[in-house]
Amino acid sequence: MKKLLLAGTALTSLALLAACSNGNSSSQNGKTTIEYLNYSSSPTYTKQLNQMVSEFEKENPNIKVDVQSVPYDTYFTKLQTLLAAGKAPDTFEMNYENFVSYASKGVLLDLSDKVKNDKSLDLSNVNKNAWNASTYQGKQYGMTEDFSNVVTFYNKDLFDKAGVAYPTDSWTWADEQAAAKKLTNNSAHVWGTYSPVTMNEFYKVAAQNKGDIYKDGKLDINNSANVEALTHMAGLVTKDKVSPSPADMSGQTSEDLFLNGQLAMVHTGIWDFATFAKAPFKWDIAVEAGNKQQATHFFADTIVVSKDSKNADASYKWAKFMSTSEQAAKIRIKGSWNLPITNSKAVLDEYLKQTPPANREAVFKSLEYMVLPPVSDNWQKLSDASDAEFQKVLINQETPKQALDNLQNQFK
User: Fold this and answer.
1) Rg from Cα positions in the chain
2) Other C-beta atoms lying within 10 Å of the C-beta of residue 271
3) What gap in Å lies between CA 2 and CA 212, rounded to an integer?
4) 294, 96 in Cβ contact below 8 A?
5) Is the pLDDT of residue 237 over 80?
6) Mean pLDDT over all residues of the chain?
7) CA–CA distance, 69 with 308 (Å, rounded to integer)
8) What is the dihedral of CA 395, 155, 353, 287, to 10 degrees?
9) Residue 91 DSSP SS3
């Protein structure tokens, strides 16, 4: 699912970033320079991030922001390398899945007092769920910059050609499965639906079946509801063949296939609005189908400050700008780059006016059913191991139950 990065104000090498890190940021011409490491701007949103940096520096002429953007796939490996070397950037981006782990390890600066004593900070107009995603054990260890969710994108032209009714907010797994069978066209290499068979997708699909990864704080990944959820996910590929297998995709992404007109439906994030804006067909979105209940992803990106930063005040100002500035929110919305945490009707009305998709209300409707990613100290290891097991299911080396039993035994 989801998401990567940069030029302009970005430093051109990680080595250069490391050289000036560990809070030893340069101070030139009376300006304080802070580093900002991120994953979310690339490749689509480089322009928007540069605009935000420019606006921030206009408002804070004594602060310069040096940006280093790293692809999401390698971001946390590089961040951990910097932290281990004592060369953490002043500020860096965190997703919710990793935020709690980093906060619990004491590598993030507690911003609680800065937030409490900041008379210019107005929190009356922000989404409280998004803001609270940056707290840990009652302390503010970051400032949420944006949030996003996943919806069902669908190719209206393919639906019309097949004579299939468009998805609705009340669709169930069975409804989507039935439609996908009618929309699949093997000779044209068109598949009815797609969602990745990975842990990032699985925990949400499990929730749609009233399943969960943990019970009373302990791993319970192989419960019957979860087995049923994984069986459904894998069955779309291996049994019904309405979703492309890894071999079918031949290295292409689901975004590629959707833009090629080869996917009638794809489950992906609202960050793909910009990617699909120039699609050569009509498309729209709907709330994802549920089974025993509806459940949709909730992702949040947070700006955090290194506890070792020697420029904590300047770093806090940058985090606050990215989180609560109306100017940053407008840039984000104009570029269709996730959702800012503002509740400002004036700002959000601009978001709803943009097309495609026409049904942007589905984005906010989905928030009614949001589920947060499970969090544990070994979440990344569990996630990686799960992805490996699920791939075995997709090539019929294991059954869904065997895969989940293996994970339970490995991580219990």
Assistant:
1) 22
2) 23
3) 21
4) no
5) yes
6) 91
7) 21
8) -50
9) strand
Tokens of 314: 């300047």
Phi and psi dihedrals of 71, rounded to 5? -55, 140
Other CB atoms within 10 Å distance of the CB of residue 165: 9
Is residue 324 classed exposed, middle or buried when 0-12, 13-18 and 19+ CB atoms within 10 A define those classes? buried
Axis crossing angle, helix 46-59 with helix 326-334, rounded to the nearest 10 = 160
In terms of Cβ atoms closer than 10 Å to its own Cβ (0-12, 13-18, 19+), residue 377 is: exposed
Spatial separation of the C-alpha atoms in residues 331 and 326, rounded to whole Å? 9
Cα separation, 95 vs 3, in Å, equals: 11
Tokens (6 digits) for 48: 């928007």
End-to-end C-alpha distance for the chain, whole angstroms: 27
Angstrom CA distances, 145 to 3, 19, 224, 323, 344, stand at 16, 27, 37, 4, 15
Q: Which residue has the tokens 């996917």?
A: 263
Pairing of strands 135-136, 296-297: unpaired
Query: Tens of pLDDT along 146-199?
Result: 999 999 999 999 999 999 999 999 999 999 999 999 999 999 999 999 999 999
Show the DSSP H helices in 214-272 as ranges: 224-238, 246-249, 254-259
Nearest to 324 by CA among 314, 335, 332, 336: 332
Contact present, 340 and 48 (Cβ < 8 Å): no
pLDDT of amino acid 13:
36
Q: What's the pLDDT at 44? A: 81
Give the whole-angstrom CA distance, residue 207 versus residue 225. 9
Task: Give the distance, in angstroms, between the CA of residue 354 and the centroid of all CA atoms in the same chain.
Answer: 21
The pLDDT assigned to 22 comes to 44
Model confidence over 294-338: pLDDT tens digits? 999 999 999 999 999 999 999 999 999 999 999 999 999 998 888
Residue 388 has pLDDT above 60, yes or no: yes
Q: Which two tokens stand for residue 159?
A: 């639906």
